[in-house]
Amino acid sequence: MGKDVIVALDFDSKEKTLAFLDRFTEEKPFVKIGMELFYAEGPSIVREIRARGHKIFLDLKLHDIPNTVKKAMAALSALDVDIVNLHAAGTAAMMTAALEGLTRPDGTRPLLIAVTQLTSTDQESMERELLIHVPMEKVVLHYAENAAAAGLDGVVCSPMEAGVVHERCGKDFLTVTPGVRFADGDAGDQKRVTTPAKAKELGSDYIVVGRPITQAEDPVAAYRRCREEFVG
Ligand SMILES: O=c1ccn([C@@H]2O[C@H](COP(=O)(O)O)[C@@H](O)[C@H]2O)c(=O)[nH]1
């Protein structure tokens, strides 16, 4: 897998999602299916988008006791997706169980990555609401190291932490980074934000971009602008 832009398909119906994808006549974007679309449409939307030839990151962020996550991952392993994820805060035991559940009888599995600290969190909210009084970068690195030790393939973090995660966990340990906005864009609920160009400079492997593309007047042009800045 090389550097790429992953488009977050945060829509509430199959119709809106497919109408959005139909606008892309020349390229086949790597897409992310998150809770909104998956809960609205169920696994069939994953199959339908896969059948159209898209790579898929299934972003369901599992977080529960190890046995429950193992069983849920076993169900997800039946879907033909490229990446699935969970919260690193669920502990090493949960991540290990998730890997076991996700691995198919023939030994294959999608890549499994762990969310460190949501990009909608900053130092202030992490300390005030989560009572974590450690610098953000240190928290992200700690979660990344736990994920690497458990055998996961990478993490979700902000582009701001991508460089140090690679330094600590290796260049092949994936950094999948939401929290991306164009220089003239509105951050909205995102707190740890960079531009696509800055994410490239900081070493992100993948940027995840939703609203700057899905809500743009011309989504295809916005996608191309993102790719141009991030991939070149
Ligand atoms: O830490 C995280 C983890 C996941 N996300 C998801 O990425 C997209 C970002 O969408 P934007 O519209 O570009 O803000 C969204 O689906 C989130 O659920 C994240 O933002 N941060």
Automatic annotation (TrEMBL):
Domain of life: Bacteria
Keywords: Decarboxylase, Lyase, Pyrimidine biosynthesis
GO molecular function: orotidine-5'-phosphate decarboxylase activity
SMART domains: OMPdecase
SUPFAM superfamilies: Ribulose-phoshate binding barrel
EC main group: lyase
GO CC, one annotated term: cytosol
EC nos: 4.1.1.23
Matches recorded under CDD domains: OMP_decarboxylase_like
Pathway info: Pyrimidine metabolism; UMP biosynthesis via de novo pathway; UMP from orotate: step 2/2
Entry-linked Pfam families: OMPdecase
One GO BP: 'de novo' UMP biosynthetic process
Sequence positions that bind substrate: 10, 32, 59-68, 119, 181, 190, 210-211
Span of domain Orotidine 5'-phosphate decarboxylase: 4-226
Active site: D59 (for ompdecase activity), K61 (for ompdecase activity), K61 (proton donor), D64 (for ompdecase activity)
Reaction(s) this enzyme catalyzes, per UniProt: orotidine 5'-phosphate + H(+) = UMP + CO2
Subunit text: Homodimer.
Function (record text): Catalyzes the decarboxylation of orotidine 5'-monophosphate (OMP) to uridine 5'-monophosphate (UMP).
Similarity field: Belongs to the OMP decarboxylase family. Type 1 subfamily.
Stated name of the protein: Orotidine 5'-phosphate decarboxylase
Organism (species): Brotocaccenecus cirricatena
Gene (name only): pyrF
